[in-house]
Amino acid sequence: MDSLMIVIILIAIVFFWWDSVGAKEKAREIGRRYCVNSDVQFLDDTVELVRLRIRRNYHGQLCFYRVYRFEFSSTGESRFQGVIYMLGRTPDKVQMDAYPPG
Questions:
Q1: What is d(CA 1, CA 22) in angstroms, rounded to the nearest whole number?
Q2: In angstroms, rounded to a whole number, what is the distance separating the alpha carbons of residues 20 and 23?
Q3: Structural domain contains residue 102
Q4: Distance CA 42, CA 40 (A)
Q5: Whole-angstrom Cα distance, residue 93 to residue 84?
Q6: 47 is a domain residue
Q7: What is the value of pTM for the model shown?
Q8: Is residue 101 part of a domain?
Q9: Do residues 49 and 24 make contact, with C-beta atoms less than 8 angstroms apart?
Q10: Which of 1, 10, 13, 42 has its CB 3.0 to 4.6 Å from that of 35, i.e. a possible disulfide?
Q11: How far apart are CA 8 and CA 18, in angstroms?
C-alpha cells in the first residue's frame, strides 16, 4: 500500500511540473504577442510566476490559476511591467503598466 501511495504522489508531482512548464510557455507566447500588438519590446524573453492558486474555470472544473509578470519597454530606455493571468492554459486577462509612446 505504501509503494502505491508513493507512485501516486510521484505521478501528481510530474503532472504538476508538466502542466507548469506548458502554462509558462503559453504565458510567454501571450506576453510576446501582446507586446508586438502594442508596439513595445518584450524584454528578457521570459515571464515570472508570482502567484499560484486553485480556481474553477468557466466550465466549473478545478484548475490552476497562475499569475505571471513580464517586463517590456516602449523606448528601449525604461522598463515597465505587465501581468498575465492564466486559468489553466487559457489566458484570462493581460494588464500592462501605463507607458510613454515610443
A1: 32
A2: 5
A3: no
A4: 7
A5: 6
A6: yes
A7: 0.88
A8: no
A9: yes
A10: 42
A11: 15
